[in-house]
Amino acid sequence: MDFKNKIVWITGASSGIGEALSYEYASKGANLVLSARREAELQRVAQACESHGGSMLVLPFDMVDLATHAQQVEAVIQAFGRIDVLVLNAGVSQRSFVLDTQFDVYRRLFEINFFSIVHLVQQVIPVFQKQQAGIFVPIASVAGRISTPRRAAYGASKHALIGFFDSVRAELHGHGIQVSTILPGYIRTEISLHAMNEHGEKYGKMDPNQAKGLDPAVAAQKIVEAVSEGKNEFFVGGALERFGLFVKQLAPSIMPWMLRKIKNT
């Protein structure tokens, strides 16, 4: 798929994978809708994308503010007349033991990582159906396949996201709608710094594996290529995570032993 002049809406566009995807889609000639909570950061990203010449709409909002979703969709349609790609990247991670984690943290994490995405997708499906075309790009995680210690809520939310979009893909195939679910491994972003601890506060520490992870720009290139090729599901990350997925699929009885050996970082 050629993304030139396509309308690509990216949530969580102010940092990390979302920011890198903004630059990559801009380089492909796409017109961008950039969303996140921090308008100043979105403006920074938009300015960096302007050199590629595409149109830009900065649309700040909080994904968990469900009451505004219909309004945000209408704003995009008013600006561009259509939506070609919706990248669902907004989310938060977690670092805390199951027993120590306050129950409200589980609820909050699911509100951000799962329910807010489901709700926005429900608003966009009629647009895609009317167009008889559209691409959902949920940014899930390897944790949705392999949930490691101290990430139970995060892994569960990403597992739910993968399952939800498996159904979306099957239900909407006849409408020309594509779902490309992305499974990032360790990407060099600040996701662990902003992760929730057991009290719902910022964890504030860099995960050592994250610090050594794949360059977000390289990850974005691979993701955009996978979406262009119509991949249903695509892993992007390093050899360690790839090996884990391999073991999970071909020798699942070994996986519990491997997970017990992981250091609690």
UniProtKB/TrEMBL annotation:
A Pfam family per the record: adh_short
InterPro entries: NAD(P)-bd_dom_sf, Sc_DH/Rdtase_CS, SDR_fam
Signal sequence range: none
Coiled coil regions, renumbered to chain: none
Family recorded in the similarity comment: Belongs to the short-chain dehydrogenases/reductases (SDR) family.
Protein name (Swiss-Prot/TrEMBL): SDR family oxidoreductase
UniProt KW keywords: Oxidoreductase
